[in-house]
Specification:
CATH superfamily of the largest domain: Metal-dependent hydrolases
Number of domains: 2
Helix content: 25-40%
Number of helices: 17
CATH architecture of the largest domain: Alpha-Beta Barrel
Radius of gyration: 22 Å
Distance between the termini: 37 Å
Length: about 425
């Protein structure tokens, strides 16, 4: 007869008969680097036991069945499919108004990103559309984006502001993010990106706008974990970026930087100096900067969807970064202008085809290393005892089929914090 204590140790839910259990285990303290990127901790015929929000046991299906007997426990039969951690999309701009489909046509016709920006398009176009929306409208449209992410297996997402570019509208975006954190199943990490670009009203005085961003920091702090700066062509200088991020660090923001997407203007040196958690894009990078970043604890977040959508030919040197021992993550950079894709499965394909990563490396970059990029690897990003039960079941029998059968949503079931939130490809409220 089981005692009350024994019953407390029993799982609420067991996923059994897993053909390929991709645990990505063993790197919760530090990101995967070097040959660790070639390991997924795969278990054949696996099972996962869940109680409340957390994973309490991982192993082979027959061993867990013998241990728990499966009596009075909810069972999900994975039918020998792939089970893995939910994706962590560690770089997005998922709260915005309107779209830029018209600019997409212009770029196909040969008009450059910079020509569009000079005419008031690009980021500034999205700023205009976002400023028009009420908070409730922004929440509604953004919730639809998150629904799509969840259906495609993303269980945690970082969302940046940056389409307000004034105190009122930056706060509106961050408040929308806070509302989404409450109403949506996806876990959200908020980032303040007031320094996304210089708004039209300050084009002739970017220094004044950089000061305004610094002045915003104390008011946005209750709504954001990270502070980010776009330190690149069309954005902010290294000096301006350092000023903003130094002010943010004094207020205990964690730091991120957009760098080296279009040009190398020295942003990496600022990231190293200030101890940024991530540097994002890195399409252009000097070997000397790679060496400088080594052992600094900076995660390199690569965004191949942007390079692909902008029809550029120079992608981030993922293979070199791995060979030199730098931790890399991948993300969608979902936004209306340079990557209107919120599907991490497709980003894994692009990481393989355009960055030269193996499927194993890409999955590590989309899960545990992406969790490190948002400071949450102690809790998410892998399937291990004690970690949060963020798990996806895919309609495939080998993880290599994720990038191989591209353009298809392979996700059948999504479990977030131990609760089934997507079943048979449908959202469950």
């Amino acid at each position: 007869m089981k005692t009350h204590k024994d019953r407390n140790l029993l799982p609420d839910l067991i996923i059994k008969n897993i053909g390929q259990l991709v645990t990505v285990a063993g790197s919760s303290l530090t990101p995967k680097t070097y040959s660790e990127m070639d390991e997924l901790g795969t278990i054949k015929n696996g099972a996962v036991a869940i109680k409340d929000e957390n994973i309490i046991d991982v192993g082979q299906s027959n061993k867990l069945e013998n241990k728990y007997k499966y009596n009075n426990i909810k069972i999900i039969d994975a039918c020998e499919k792939v089970v893995m951690p939910g994706f962590v999309d560690c770089h997005t701009h998922a709260v915005f108004g309107g779209d830029r489909a018209g600019e997409f046509i212009q770029r196909i016709q040969g008009i450059t990103y910079w020509e569009i920006l000079k005419k008031g398009g690009g980021i500034l176009s999205t700023v205009k559309n976002t400023r028009k929306l009420k908070l409730s409208e922004l929440i509604k449209t953004s919730s639809m984006h998150l629904d799509s992410m969840l259906l495609h297996g993303t269980t945690t997402v970082e969302i940046k502001s940056g389409y307000g570019l004034n105190k009122k509208d930056e706060l509106k975006i961050l408040k929308a993010i806070q509302n989404l954190k409450i109403i949506h199943h996806i876990e959200i990490i908020p980032t303040f990106l007031g320094a996304h670009t210089v708004p039209l009203e300050y084009k002739k005085n970017p220094e004044a706008y950089a000061k305004i961003v610094c002045d915003m920091l104390s008011e946005v702090k209750p709504y954001a974990t990270f502070c980010d700066v776009f330190c690149d062509k069309g954005g902010f200088s290294p000096k301006q970026s350092e000023k903003i991020l130094s002010s943010a660090a004094r207020l205990d923001f964690k730091l991120k930087m957009h760098v080296n997407e279009f040009e190398d203007i020295g942003g990496i040196s600022v990231a190293i100096k200030l101890g940024a958690m991530t540097v994002d894009h890195l399409d252009i990078i000097k070997p000397s900067d790679i060496l400088k970043m080594k052992n600094r604890g900076i995660v390199c977040v690569l965004l191949p969807g942007v390079t692909f959508f902008l029809m550029k030919n120079t992608y981030a040197p993922a293979k070199m970064l791995i060979e030199k021992g730098l931790p890399i993550a991948i993300a969608t950079d979902f936004n209306p202008g340079t990557c209107p894709c919120n599907n991490m499965q497709l980003i894994i394909t692009l990481a393989c085809l355009k960055l030269g990563m193996t499927p194993t490396q890409a999955i590590n970059a989309a899960t545990i290393n992406a969790a490190h990029a948002v400071g949450m690897a102690h809790r998410i990003g892998s399937i291990e005892t004690g970690k949060q039960a963020d798990i996806i079941i895919l309609d495939i029998h080998d993880y290599k089929q994720i990038p191989y059968y591209f353009g298809i949503n392979h996700v059948n079931t999504v479990i977030k914090k131990g609760k089934v939130v997507v079943e048979n490809k449908y959202l469950i409220n």
